[in-house]
Amino acid sequence: MDRLLPWLRRSGWMYGLIALVLAVMAWRSMGDGGEQGAPAPAARVSRAPDVPKMTLVHVAGAVRKPGVYRVGGDSRVIQAVRIAGGPTRDADLSRLNLAAPVADGQQVVIPFRPRPGAGVGGGASGAGTSGAGGGATGPVSLSSATAADLEALDGVGPALAARIIAWRDSHGGFSSVDALDEVPGIGPARMEALRPHLTP
């Protein structure tokens, strides 16, 4: 028994040391497990601000600068009119919904104000569509209209009327209304505005 006491004392000290080391290791492993088990903070995803989509719109009719323009995707008709230089003096904006939204590829036609005493597309002098008199009103015939008949149309002045008649004389008349586009000074916007009021 006396021999065993020193060994037990030494062994007890060693067992105690081993137990202490195991306890420290167990405590560390629990700490690591807790950190690994904790959910990682969610990464913040920054979103770029939404950029308004651009839209192409064709502005024609009674505006100062007819053409195709790029506007914001949430634009209204009034903004399309302004970017085209604004309305002309003979524009009739009351016939247009200026608050309507524009769509990609849309054509916005600003109508002209009818001239006093002029029929629908006819002459103000009372001449008929054939140029022979009688007071008839209606589409103007490009093949027989006089200069006065042409000048009564919105957007046609004396110089343009003279060019139309000169082209008609040199080409033997108009086979179709589309041929008017070959006359110098007739742009796409003016062509579309005049088309409903003309016949070959």
Account of the protein in words:
- Among the domains are: 54-110; 140-199, Photosystem II 12 kDa extrinsic protein (DNA polymerase, domain 1), CATH 1.10.150.320.
- The protein is built from 5 helices and 5 strands, in the order αββαββαααβ.
- It has helices at residues 4-37, 77-83, 147-151, 158-171, 188-194; strands at residues 54-61, 67-72, 106-110, 140-141, 198-199.
- The protein has a 3-stranded mixed beta sheet, with helices on both faces. Strands 4-5 form a two-stranded parallel sheet.
Quick rundown:
The chain has 200 residues and is of the alpha/beta class. It has helices at 4-37, 77-83, 147-151, 158-171, 188-194, and strands at residues 54-61, 67-72, 106-110, 140-141, 198-199.
Helix content: 25-40%
Tell me the distance between the termini.
137 Å
Please state the CA-atom Rg, rounded to the nearest Å: 43 Å
Shape type: rod-shaped
CATH class of the domain at 140-199: Mainly Alpha
Q: Quick one: how many beta strands?
A: 5
Largest sheet: 3 strands, mixed
Structural class: alpha/beta
What is the tally of helical segments? 5
> Per DSSP, what share of the residues sits in E-state strands of 2 or more residues?
5-15%
What is the H level of CATH, i.e. the homologous superfamily of the domain at 140-199?
Photosystem II 12 kDa extrinsic protein
CATH architecture of the domain at 140-199: Orthogonal Bundle
Largest sheet, spatial ordering of strands: 2-1-3
Mean pLDDT value: 74
Provide the low-confidence segments as ranges: 118-136
CATH topology-level name of the domain at 140-199? DNA polymerase, domain 1
